[in-house]
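Ticket closed. Logging final result for Peroxidase, putative.
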Amino acid sequence: PEAPPCRPQRFRAYDGYCNNLQNPYWGSANLRYLRFLPPNYGDGISQARQDGRGRALPSARTVSASMFQDQDRPHDHASMMTVAWGRFVFHDISHTAQAAGFEGARLKCCGVAEGFSHPECMPIAVPDRDQYYGRFGQRCLEYVRSSAAPRETCGLGPREQNNQVTSFLDGSTIYGSSEAEARFLRAFEGGQLLSQRTNDGEELPPPDITTLDCRRTAQEPPCFSSGDPRVNSDLGLGLMHTVWLREHNRVARSLQTSNPQWDDERTFQETRRIIGAQMQYITYNEFLPALLGPEVVERFGLRLENQGYFRGYDPKRLPGVTNVMAAVGVWALVSAAPAQVELFDPARFRRLGSLPETAFRPLELYSRLQQIAAGALMQHAQKMDNFMSRHAGVDLAAVAIQQGRDHGITGYTRWRQFCGLRAIDDFEGLKRVMSSDAAFRLSQLYSAVDDIDLLAGALSETPVEGGLVGPTLACIYAHQFRHLRVSDRYWFENPGQPSSFTEDQLRELRKTSLARVLCDNVFLRTGGGVVQPRTMRVPDPWLNNLMSCEDRLLASVDLDAWQDSSRAGSVPQSLLQDALADLTASQGGQFGRQGARGGFMRATAGSRSIHNQSEALEFATRRLLKATRKGDKRQDVIPALRQVDLSKFAAEFEEPAACEDEPLKPCNPRSPFRSLSGRCNNLRKPNLGKVGHSFRRVLPGLYEDGVSAPRSRSVTGSPLPSPRLVSFAVHGDLSHPHQRYTMMLMQLGQFIDHDIAHTPLSEGADGATLRCRACNSPERVNKECFPIPIPSNDPHFPSVSRKNPNIPQCLPFTRSMSGQRTLGSREQINQVTGYLDLSTVYGSDECARDELRLFRSGLLNMSAHPAGREFKPLLSEVDGAADCISSNGRCFIAGDTRVSEQPGLTSMHTIFAREHNRIARTLQSLNPHWDDERVFQEARKIVGAIFQRIVFAEFLPRTLGWESVSQWGLHLLEEGYYNGYDPTCDVGSFNEFATAAFRFGHTLLPPVLKLVGPAYDELGGLKLTDAFFNSQTLYRKDRLDQLLRGLLSTPMENFDNHVTEMVTKHLFEAKSVPFSGLDLVAINLQRGRDHGLRTYNDYRAFCSQPRARTFADLEGHIPRATLRAIGSVYRDVEDIDVFTGGLSEFPLAGAVVGPTFSCLLSFQFQRLRRCDRFWHETGDPTVRFSSDQLAQLRKASLAKIICQNSDTTRFITRKVLDVYDPFL
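Final structure:
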């Protein structure tokens, strides 16, 4: 009959109907299998395949007994989870029906009198002397032919077989392949599937007391019912069906909670849609790479998109599963299944024993599901080779071979030809692709090499690199799974369909992992558990180590992306309009050209404009909070306020220009160069990461009033300890030089930090610096004053005035300038870009362009060295810079205003500026036709790339350790291009990174910067107290080189809780004024509270470490003496500031920092690479380097830059971050 017309729908039909709109039945259930090669029947129509001479092939049992012996051959790496998942997926796309008798009765083919055998019987002959069956006198194995299927056109031709399930990877194993099956499985409440509960509360698939395929006694519980009747065939399949039933119901509950307006049908279908996408993602992202190896995955285009949509859907491609997949590919996986199922303790992952003979007996799932799941993760799968375990006394290899002949699957050598593999013309040729023993056995079984059954030959092949199967099976699987993807209109990555996911939803779905699904539905249900991230492999102590299910690295799919509307919609528009009445007025000062240069923490004009708006937003937030209903909790209302679209109330709010053309020009997607401001890096959202963005957060801010008041009270209700008290009690001065790394690591770290983050301080009227030393300055001077109390027992600073002991003394502290761009709690401004773009050299906006560039030959503006022309130039200088204490009143200028903070930092600025000019001169000589702008931009692009390589290849491995670098994907590529750019990721600097974690370098500081001569002889040193903001020291002959040599030859201090008193007592001290110094540690702690950072315990939990309930819980994580000091100042473990806690941890093995800071740093640097369209390794043809250029950039090192831009340094260590060692 003619198919009714199809219209695009949001949800799949259960039976696959209307997947293809022009050909509605394509890919539906109960259609024939497709074929890659024509069938090979003995009579050309339906008779089982014969040998090349028209004779019967050797008995399938004879082949099995010789080729598929029962031996224990565990794979070195593959886990049993690979087998369980593979069978679960194969059953989703293939179910071959057997011919049946009257009213569906099962046919009996062995022991039937001659002449009474059913025509669909094709029993397997057993030799008289069979080593196994001969003992029982058995001469026949049951085999009933697969049921025949008509062609789509009902035309004539050779026999075809029927596929009872849809030809799409659509979760039919869970939901069935028909409306009737699905209705039988549904609860019709809350979108959930039917399930049963054990006495222990375990959720299992519903019971099925009618199934014939269940080996149980009358007293034992029944087997299970699911979308596929093979659910009970083994424990691995039963486990998968259980896990995914639970996952469906878990997702449905979450969707129903966030969308209470949805009815049962909508919730069920949306959940089914998500589950299908997760199955597709795990299959292509985890299973296929393990099965086929990465090379085959790449060659056949099976790698999923890491961003955006897949545009390869072909409506002209006939969907379907191929006959060779059903008759050989599905069976081949059986060779990887061991004879016994091992049980493991899910808490300790200790082997508990094994379960023999579990085929069609899944009853252990009632009581041992967690042990079975842990066993599947820990037990090694068997090798996929010509050895196969016997299951329940059934010779599955013989059945598989017989089915291949039944289906007319042509011989092994013909399939190698189909796959474009090397031809095999004789048995001797087999030795090139398999073991000599396997080749010999095949030569004894078959008359000719072309007669070899596909299963016997393909499973005997040597596996492809990184895969489980040989090249022939890899080819067959790869062709099939590519076909599944390109022929499915509902494929989860497809765009432009009613069924398409949004980009936000796609981004969440790409967080799916089988490890996370197992955690959520097996191990976390009882309060804990561990799992390896790559479940298809057994755990190892390196990159696949067991980790807690609460580990943040096991990302979860955020189902909020499926929420229909934000709760912010509940805020009345009239109330918003009234509260935001002052917003437009706050926009009077747009970004403009910066006048005189301010101090090193002073705000730019752009930051002041943002701050004006943020003040109005904070005021509006407080008005809205007062007006909300009494029952509404502040912690619920504030996140909702963040979602309010402010452009409705102030049209120009979103885009104040940062020294750029007004109005802003559209982005040019063909420009190969970054903008200075970071604008247009992301073409979808041009202002992501742009200068002036608000700091991002790893965790929501923690303010005393929920809006902006700094955290000031302990969880006990008492005041928090003064940061100055914490500083001298916990972070005293104690020198422990590092055994491995030099001061250059510290200095490079500061240079990197200034490239990523710069927070301006609040100001008074007309940009005046606030005087916040007096303890009452918040009331007397400005509410943005937040002075640090000096404790009465302070060992250095007087706690009361010497003139009046009734007046307490404080250390000055000014709050950071506010810069939130939304309603809600306070955020801070980052007045550099959110990219690793060397803004320290080039600046972060057009404001700096005129004074930094020479506008000739692409050069930066530099000044002649006062010591003579034989020395390379120094940075440009400026008169009257705030904070400058040089006797001549001049300090250096660069892309970052903090350039003159201390001479080691100035030296880094200088060598990178020199490197720019060195490269610019070379480019100009090679390309004399280039103008100044082209030379400048090309040189900037090259130097920026070199800087990125130094950070990721030299700094991060030492700071984080190789294990963290691997876990977070921070490895640079040795060849080729990086294709991991994600235009949807949240770019920018994170508050926790800038305000706490990356300040770990303060513990690495020595009291003195050593000066070292050309022969690496020590010449003396510069006290830090004498070096702050004093640029004149670099005027001296060879002083810059002396400083650099000192940095690369002197050990840095150990990472620990100790910090030199040069910065805890004498920071920025005026020698003529007693006690005028500051305390850097106290400032860091106060800054964390100012910025609303959460506590150390919160970040421990975020970083997948156990939350401490008492100080004693931190033993083993923090040295005992340090822990005692921490306990002496903090009343509760929940009060510990993240800077103190992170700095006090034991370093990770092979790393400088401890686990909490390693996690926060990795989180930041991962995004600096992934979110940057101009990342130097990118394969984007518009902005990328050529492969030859990239090969040259990969030779770059910090040592080379220092050599090329020094004056008197003639030799240097290859790795300047490492302490010199003649062996290393």
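DSSP finds 38 helices and 24 strands in the chain. No further action required.
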